[in-house]
Amino acid sequence: MQTIKVKTGKLVGPDLNWAVAKALGWINYPEDSLERGAYWHTDLERAPFGKCIRLSEWNPSTDMNQGGKLLGKIGISLNYRGKGDQGPVSEFDWQALHPTACYHSRKVAGYGPDFLTAAMRCIALAFFGEHIDIPTPESLQNMLE
């Protein structure tokens, strides 16, 4: 699998969902001839057997059932900093703070135009820091198919 280095705080969509799964410690096997990386193995003690979820079905940055559960489990706190309906949506409207992770003596904060994006960026930032190696768009697309 080929990768590229990107800013963690700018991740969106499938790239952000991939980073969150990796931050949770989930495993996928892109080199496996049957799976081709299409599944996240969520039961680390039993992988490659046990519970798994298709990459295409893991969308915590847009699915409240998935992302919302992580907010509570990890203890992410949210702050709305936008202008409401007084102006356009900004990339910094929502701030998500990690309860324990610190970077240069400050709490890790993720930002986004909506609270799920901000929260998932916060989780990825807490685990990976400012930069992350993610699959190239072609590699990720092959795993999502």
Terminus-to-terminus distance: 15 Å
Major sheet details: 3 strands, antiparallel
Q: What's the order of the H and E elements?
A: EHEEHEEEHEH
Q: Quick one: overall form?
A: globular
Strand content: 25-35%
Low-pLDDT runs of 5+ residues are none
Strand line-up in the sheet with most strands: 4-5-6
Q: Specify Rg, calculated over alpha carbons.
A: 16 Å
Structural class: alpha+beta
Give the rounded overall mean pLDDT. Answer: 89
- How many beta strands in the DSSP annotation? 7
- Domain module tally: 1
Question: Would you kindly provide a brief summary of this structure?
Answer:
With 145 residues, the protein is of the alpha+beta class.
Characterise the protein shown here:
This protein has 145 residues and is an alpha+beta fold. It has one domain (3-24, 59-144). It has 4 helices and 7 strands, in the order βαββαβββαβα. It has helices at residues 13-23, 64-74, 115-128, 137-144; strands at 3-7, 39-41, 52-54, 77-80, 94-103, 106-112, 131-135. Strands 4-5-6 form a 3-stranded antiparallel beta sheet. The chain has a two-stranded antiparallel sheet with strand order 1-7. A two-stranded antiparallel ribbon has the order 2-3. Strand 5 (94-103) and strand 6 (106-112) form a beta hairpin. The longest helix is centred in the C-terminal third of the chain and has 14 residues, at 115-128. The two termini are 15 Å apart. The model has no long low-confidence stretch (mean pLDDT 89).
